[in-house]
Amino acid sequence: MPKPTLCCSRAGGYCDRCDLLVGLPGLHVIGVDRDEGIGAFTVTVESEPEVMGCPRCGVVAHGHGRREVRLVDAPWAGRPVTIIWRKRRFVCPDPGCPTRSFVEQDEDIARPRALLTVRACRWAIAQLRREHASILGLACQLGTTWKTVWTSIKPVLEQAAADPTRFEGVSTLGVDEHVWRHVSTKPIEDGGRGPKELTGIVDLTRDQHGRTRARLLDLVRAAPAPRTRPD
Question: Which InterPro entries does the protein's record reference (predicted)?
Fold first, then answer.
């Protein structure tokens, strides 16, 4: 080629193709690094400078620099990914407003004070449901710890479990007993890891093509076997 083709057309600006590849709406990629030792990627992103109103009083806030927040993202090409989000900081100029300063938030990207991005939580839950992955295995793939993964996806799972619409359209149920052999029988409050015997409830409704959904609806503690006295 007589002239090289660059992905980023102008120095110092944002590249729409890099943004499209990373896929975080509203955020622009400003840097990508790779740890050659473990092959993990670190992607630095930021939003464009724009007018922002105070979330409490609505007065136009003053920009006050940026604050870097590190988030675990879904793996890319089998490699762990860390997002460094350079969040904009603002100061409310209204002396009567109780909100002195705040940082930008976007709950479509990550919840406030989250450790994982929203799509990393969705990826982890999909792996649990479809691939029967363990939390520890997911933590290894994400390049983080068991506690970080579980504390991030637990509220999402609890919210989904409390949603009654998940039972809509279910006409056939399957029930299966399961025993976790690596889990002790001690209760969680005594340092155990929860129930050992569980009953899985699965949606076996067939679609218009006759294919079964095989969707896990719930896991409940199995009823203990009745004790019998010898004659």
Answer: Transpos_ISL3, Transposase_Znf
